[in-house]
# Entry
Amino acid sequence: MARHDRPRPLPLLAPEEATERTEPIPVVDGRLPETTARPPSDAAPTPEPGPVRDGAAHVGQGHGHGHGPAAPAGRRVRVLLAALLVPCALATVVGLVLLWPRGDLPHSTQRVQQTFDAEVVAAQAADCSPGSGEGGCAGLTLHMTGGPLPGRDLVQIVPVEPSTPRFAVGDPVRVAYSGGDPTDPGSYQVVDFQRGGALIWLGAAFAVAVLLLGRWRGLAALVALGLSLLVLVVFVLPAILAGSSPVTVAVVGASVIMFAVLYLTHGLSARTSTTVLGTLVSLALIALLSAVFSAFARLTGLDDTTASLIGTLGVPVDARGLVLAGVIIGALGVLDDVTVTQTSAVWELRAANPTLGPRALFAAGMRIGRDHVSSAVNTLVLAYAGASLPLLLLFTVAAQGPGTVLTSQDVATEVVRTLVGSIGLVAAVPITTALAAVVASREEP
# Structure
């Protein structure tokens, strides 16, 4: 083909302003270089791209929302969360100050025996009465490491009954000393095994597992666990013994634990504040339902343990209030799990697809929540059933009908505790998911 027959490139501008360019046009970073040619006189100027907020592009000054920078919606949501949570936090602090135990706490009216450590160095069958030849007892030789005669050996005759534990050489045991003649074996009694070493090793294994998986967040979780135990030991139990309402003490103590644990573990953010708010609402619902149904079912709370406590202290104790306090504190741990999971799921859905609105986030979060709540409720029921297994076996042996068993004081208390906690868990899913959907959808991407 002749040179003058070579096809010319198509004009990019108007025909009268196009210039012939036969060399290739370089492409830099995927874009064509800017041309110095003037745009046609009848073409509108290209608007400058405006900022993208809340999923909408604001172009130049021609759009109705382009009059200055608008306050981000996420900030307004944070202010609303603070307005809801700050009064709750202040009320918790005021309750903590007012209910803090002061003065001497009531002590047991019964004489407390001194206990010390010992080790089983010999164990053999023995007569319960010396020389009777009847057997039926175990003879234990104990090496005392404490007590009035440390380093000495002590012989103890222990009756062998179905409720008697089996002792072997090398077992570390706890021995009670009545305060009588230290040389008389009758002044001593084997009361329990030593378990401190096993519990320390188990606690260390738990801490290592949490740190290996959670790292710094796992460390924060361990610190939060320590704070929870500290609140229970330093505030909740002494305040109840000091005569304060167990329900009020439980609500304040649970709120302290919730604020401290959630913010320490997950940080100060709108996501954590949403979790705290959802937990507060669900916890209030559980407290209300437990108060209503414990009165409706006429639960007294006077089981064997509570009756023994009242007899030991010698002062009146709100037994029904103890039941309600146990429901509130027991449900808090499971509530934390549900609310944290739902909030995190909604935030991850929002991060994966920023175009999702509150309705779409709520629908997707509820699909996750239905699976979660089914397993959580099952876990709660099995946990209470496992804790009450000896009691259930006792009623089974008694050959009583299911109606009699379920409506008895001890079993009915556990039934109310389980069902109220389960209702609170079920309600926590839509409550927390709805709050998280509203807050997450209004946060800046």
Summary: Residues 196-241 form the longest helix (46 residues). The CA atoms of residues 13 and 39 lie 8 Å apart. The two ends are 59 Å apart (CA to CA). Confidence is low (pLDDT under 50) at residues 1-7, 9-73.
